[in-house]
Amino acid sequence: MTAALLIVDVQNDFTEGGALGVDGGSAAAAAITRHLAAHAQDYALVLASRDWHDPDSDNGGHFASGEPDYVTTWPVHCVAGTPGAEYDPALSTSAVTHHIRKGQGTHGYSAFEGVAEDGSTLAQILDAHGIDRLDIVGIATDHCVRASALDALEHRDRLAPLTEVRVLTDLVAGVAPGPSQAALEEIAAAGGTLA
Predict the structure, then answer these.
(1) What pTM does this model have?
(2) Family assignment (predicted)?
(3) From residue 137, how far is each of 61, 76, 148 by CA, in Å?
(4) φ/ψ of residue 159, rounded to 5
């Protein structure tokens, strides 16, 4: 089995004190760092996604022009090059092999919408390295983790040899308990594994 780890959006604006801070976000960052310390050698790739929104636009309506609805419009967050877009300091990125930037001019919930420094998509990177299991961790369970996992499952049929998509449930943090649980159930119903 050739496995990869996808770390979704463990950024300052999504952890406590950030523009869209999630309770437990910094704890998830620290737990992911511990997981990497123990298991980095188990992964052929370690990929980390970040929202990297354009500073001079509403990013396809993602940034609210007035009061955000927190469903399709949001306060300004994770603007490219700002401290809020940087990784949470509790997350060690020393094992990360590919940094994926998403949401440049768009909503960009899923890491599969982003690109690496060389312009490669996440799907292209996984395919090129023959990844057959993708473990997903990060923030937020009920938004970008959900979207990334569901996209991975959708891409699974086109990404030979990818056969297994797992969400490591002790290494995620969600905005709210109910929607986070619903997101995990949706991922499982779509064929994902909760580990």
Answers:
(1) 0.96
(2) Belongs to the isochorismatase family.
(3) 27, 24, 10
(4) -110, 70
